[in-house]
């Protein structure tokens, strides 16, 4: 496991954003994440694709057993690093959701960068999920 997001106690510095699924008793969450009507593996693939489209962002770790991924994205001007940890949560076999935590590695204040990142990723994720769902073969034995 990369990070236990259900028990996470964020830093006292205001340079992070945490959004979690409905039903999680995470007192530090700054919002909730949506439900997606796709298996957790499709959601993971979609989120990794979203991150890959972001400038100066790359995958650091992918822990399929723990259903987590960690990314690093650097700022354009100074190259400050932010870390993004995502946990993929199955909701049965055909639905899923996620928790996402974005934080600055250095500095005290992030000027809202991490919150904007989380919102941006969550805003484009449904379109990527839809692309993957529509690209899935219809006559596969996996259905």
Describe the model.
Residues 139-143 have low confidence and may be disordered. A hairpin with a 4-residue loop joins β3 and β4. The chain has 143 residues and is of the alpha+beta class. Strands 2-1-6-5-4-3 form a 6-stranded mixed β-sheet, with helices on one face. The chain has a single domain, classed as Alpha-D-Glucose-1,6-Bisphosphate, Chain A, domain 4 (2-Layer Sandwich), CATH 3.30.530. It has helices spanning 40-52, 113-135, and strands at residues 16-21, 32-33, 57-63, 68-74, 81-90, 96-104. α1 packs across α2.
Features:
single chain, 143 residues, alpha+beta, Alpha-D-Glucose-1,6-Bisphosphate, Chain A, domain 4, six-stranded mixed beta sheet, 2 helices, 6 strands, globular, disordered C terminus
Brief characterization of the structure:
25% of the residues lie in helices and 29% in strands. It is α+β, with helices and mostly antiparallel strands and 143 residues long.
> What is the percent of helical residues?
25-40%
Distance between the termini: 30 Å
- Radius of gyration from CA coordinates: 15 Å
CATH class wording: Alpha Beta
Q: How many helix segments? A: 2
